[in-house]
Write a structure and sequence with these properties.
Elements (H helix, E strand, L loop, with lengths): L4 H27 L6 H24 L4 H19 L9 H28 L6 H25 L6 H4 L2 H10 L1 H14 L4
Length: 193
């Protein structure tokens, strides 16, 4: 058992952020009638539940046991495999772009909230930018929810809400390689051997 609680918690935040990204993408695909893999959705949901089950125990002890580290390593390996097929072949349809953008925003919101929680748990000062981003993510995820609900009802969304999707999608694609490399950081933070 290690005593590097803040790093471990940060690793869990990153890992669950990727699971959140995958889960939201699959959820959006399901809701808007885009081709999706139901088994993939169920497996990602199960991995997310497994990872979330470790968090309350960790928040009590502020340390991961060897068994928890091993479990998180298995979760991370499967998550990394799923992330390899997260990005589809170009060109993307609007619905596919929406799933990538929406899942990215929800994942970033999750990580932002996790970092704020880390600060409270370990009495560590967190940059005030993280607190200021709360509203930013709330506004954008509400917009994603509107777009998904509108498309789910086979209605045409308003242009003011569809217009930002392309530039946001382009931003995600610019960071694609960094996203896929993050699992090295997850492994380091969670002390996988």
């Amino acid at each position: 058992m290690t005593t590097n609680g803040p790093s471990q918690y940060n690793g869990m935040i990153l890992l669950t952020g990727y699971l959140q990204r995958l889960f939201v993408a699959e959820t959006i695909y399901r809701k808007i009638g885009e081709t999706h893999d139901e088994a993939r959705y169920e497996r990602v949901k199960s991995l997310l539940d497994e990872a979330y089950a470790i968090l309350p125990a960790f928040e009590e002890t502020k340390n991961l046991t060897k068994a928890q580290i091993n479990q998180l390593q298995l979760i991370a390996q499967q998550t990394e495999e799923f992330m390899k097929s997260y990005f589809k072949e170009l060109p993307y349809t609007f619905k596919q772009k929406l799933a990538i953008v929406g899942s990215s925003l929800y994942a970033e919101q999750h990580v932002n909230a996790g970092i704020i929680r880390l600060g409270k748990l370990f009495n560590v000062e967190v940059n005030k930018d993280f607190h200021q981003r709360i509203k930013f993510y709330e506004q954008r995820t509400k917009m994603i929810d509107y777009l998904v609900a509108t498309l789910q009802q086979n209605e045409e969304p308003e242009e003011q809400f569809t217009k930002p999707i392309d530039p946001w999608f382009n931003d995600v694609m610019k960071n694609k390689e960094f996203l896929l490399d993050d699992f090295k950081q997850v492994a380091k933070l969670l002390e996988f051997n």
